[in-house]
Write a structure and sequence with these properties.
heterotrimer, A mainly alpha (363), B alpha+beta (149), C mainly alpha (110), B: 149 residues, Rieske Iron-sulfur Protein, six-stranded antiparallel beta sheet, 2 helices, elongated, C: 110 residues, mainly alpha, 75% helix, rod-shaped
């Protein structure tokens, strides 16, 4: 009893000492008062922290992998092989990194689609949506750049195709490809560049943008369904800390268990080192999250009117992307017919992406 | 013995369980991380040197070889005996060199001196150079760790 | 109520001891599979031969039956721990929800 009181008093004194110098009591008080509404949309509010959980796992496993990975042409594949065979439990760390990437991207998609359908992007949350779209792009960039690093045949082929696609963009396409590859062709410079993106540039950008995204969420509060009664919702809402956090922890634990189980029983293998001069291997395809885009490009004919099918496809995707980015400004009357159409577009998109992905896997 | 008041409240018990099990889970996850970050650094059990390259070095010379990640030094004494050292200074790990005219090993980092048998004789090194056992087996020289008494 | 109070510290102590013991045993068995007898010798030779051949594809995973058992054990323990934690968390959730409904934390308005 005495010991407990002693510890309590010491921590209180330390808290006061810290508060006099750092002054974060405002943040702590804010968090204590933050409330999470309980309604049919509440289940989707778990998705944000799920993304964060997997991202933190990526950072931790990524750091350990980066201790042993060597980003040069000659050593990349060998160093990954070393991680898988010589580093104690290296294969588990790599497997968790690989699976957590899939989980994180899946969580980002679920998060995004849920916001789209429940329309949380309405005023005043437009910037939250836009920062979110950028976060989606960065997450996909993480996946793309990371995929090349083992430097085996499959990843080299996927990167060749992936960095060639922007070439079809008129005017700037060639520059984009050159920027990504560090030259006209894929070389050791591409690997160094992708490693820099994956380990330095993208983490910094992502962290900065997550800061903006989370700040906006705290400032603007949790959104309510269209046409909800604010007073009633506030009455039913539960405190964020600790009530909602305990509920989130349950979800994290289950997902973490699933992640480790999959990682341990289905670890990724490693192909032999890629040869830049060798012909493309058969049956190359990108990671699952790019399959629907890959298939979309495939279905366009080689030439359309006065330009290539690729260019038309890319432009359509770009236009779609831009509309997507500005969605909150387009859907400014969500309860009316325009809003309902946009909801249906979301479902149509899900159907399209799933169908395209399955087709890509079969074909 | 019955007590009049609770030593433990249900609340503190529950909190203890939660914290305890979370701590156990995190600790068990920390273990593989530590293993991966601190991989076992094992020296080789033995190193084989070709008799051609290493057997015929002139007396009072030293020829380097790889002892795991460290430099090894094979020395032929005036008498023709072969002796091997781990060529790492016992002060702060710099690599040493052999100066044949002076018959001494020298560490340039802090001017440490060892005599021709590896005994530390001048400068900061606290211990002699580590010895390795040399045996001739067929065409090869086999370098092994020195037997501990 | 009073009798339960006396048992509680003992239960906590028992749980702590079991957890610590479990950590040590399982940790050692998983991450450094204790070498058996003749079986280990055979396995070492096999893995050496494998390592020397240039592999077309490197497959990750536990190599022998000892490691496989250790892996199954670890995953089993992980889910058991998660199960216990979820059980405890549900109790905590019920507790904080009840306290919130009773307005335990809000200052009394006079």
């Amino acid at each position: 009893m005495n010991f407990r009181v002693c510890v309590k008093r010491m921590s209180e004194r330390f808290a006061t000492w810290l508060e006099e110098r750092v002054g974060l009591r405002a943040v702590a008080d804010f968090l204590k008062n933050k409330k999470v509404p309980q309604n049919k949309h509440t289940i989707w509010s778990y998705t944000g922290s799920i993304i964060l959980l997997f991202f933190l796992i990526q950072v931790a496993t990524g750091i350990i992998l980066a201790f042993y990975y060597r980003p040069t042409l000659e050593e990349a594949n060998k160093s990954v092989a070393r991680i898988m065979t010589e580093v104690p439990l290296g294969w588990v760390i790599r497997s968790i990194h690989s699976w957590s990437a899939t989980f994180m991207i899946a969580a980002v998609f679920v998060h995004l689609l849920s916001i789209w359908v429940i329309k949380s992007y309405r005023k005043p949350r437009e910037l939250t949506w836009m920062s979110g779209v950028l976060l989606l792009l960065f997450t996909l960039a993480f996946g793309f750049t990371g995929y090349l690093l083992p430097w085996d045949e499959l990843s080299l082929a996927a990167t060749k195709v992936g960095t060639d696609i922007p070439r079809s963009i008129p005017v700037v396409g060639v520059w984009v490809t050159k920027f990504l590859r560090g030259g006209e062709d894929i070389s050791g410079d591409t690997l160094s560049r992708f490693f820099s993106f994956h380990v330095t540039i993208l983490p910094l950008l992502l962290l900065a943008l997550v800061g903006v995204h989370v700040y906006l969420i705290q400032k603007l509060g949790m959104s309510l369904p269209v046409g909800a009664d604010e007073k009633e919702e506030m009455r039913r809402a539960i405190p964020f800390w600790p009530n909602f956090v305990y509920r989130e922890m349950v979800v994290w634990l289950i997902l973490f268990g699933a992640l480790v189980t999959l990682a341990v029983f289905l670890p990724p293998s490693l192909g032999k080192s890629a040869d830049l001069m060798a012909p493309a291997p058969e049956g190359i395809k990108p990671e699952w999250y790019f399959l629907f885009l890959f298939q979309t490009l495939k279905i366009f004919p080689a030439r359309i009117l006065f330009t290539t099918g690729d260019t038309v496809a890319i432009l359509l995707i770009l236009v779609g992307g831009i509309l997507f980015f500005f969605l909150p400004l387009i859907d400014n009357r969500p309860a009316e017919r325009k809003g309902k159409v946009i909801t249906w577009i979301a479902f149509a998109f899900i159907l399209y992406a799933v169908a395209m992905s399955i087709w890509s896997l079969l074909g | 013995m019955k007590v009049r008041e609770s030593i433990f409240t249900r609340r503190r018990f529950l909190n203890g369980l939660l914290g305890g099990w979370l701590g156990a889970l995190l600790a068990s996850l920390l273990y593989p991380v530590m293993r991966a970050i601190f991989p076992p650094e094992r020296e080789p059990d033995q190193v084989l040197l070709s008799g051609e390259d290493y057997g015929d070095i002139p007396p009072n010379t030293v020829k380097p070889f790889a002892w795991g990640n460290k430099p090894g030094l094979l020395k032929k004494a005036e008498t023709g005996d072969l002796i091997a050292f781990v060529g790492v200074c016992t002060h702060l790990d710099c690599n040493v060199t052999y100066l044949p005219e002076q018959r001494k090993f020298f560490c340039a980092c802090h001017e440490g001196w060892y005599d021709e048998n590896g005994t530390n004789i001048g400068g900061p090194p606290p211990r002699p150079l580590r010895r390795l056992r040399v045996t001739i087996e067929g065409e090869n020289l086999v370098i092994r760790k020195e037997e501990t008494a | 109520m009073k009798r339960r109070v006396r048992k509680q510290p003992a239960i906590v102590a028992l749980i702590v001891v079991l957890m610590v013991q479990g950590e040590i045993l399982l940790g050692r068995d998983f991450f450094e599979p204790t070498i058996g007898k003749a079986q280990a010798g055979q396995e070492q030779e096999q893995s050496k031969a494998q390592a020397q051949a240039e592999p077309e594809k490197i497959v990750a995973g536990p190599k022998d039956i000892k490691e496989k058992t250790a892996v199954y054990f670890f995953v089993g323990w992980l889910w058991a721990a998660i199960g216990v934690l979820i059980y405890v968390l549900r109790l905590k959730i019920k507790e904080v929800d009840r306290l919130y409904a009773l307005k335990f934390f809000t200052p009394d308005r006079k």
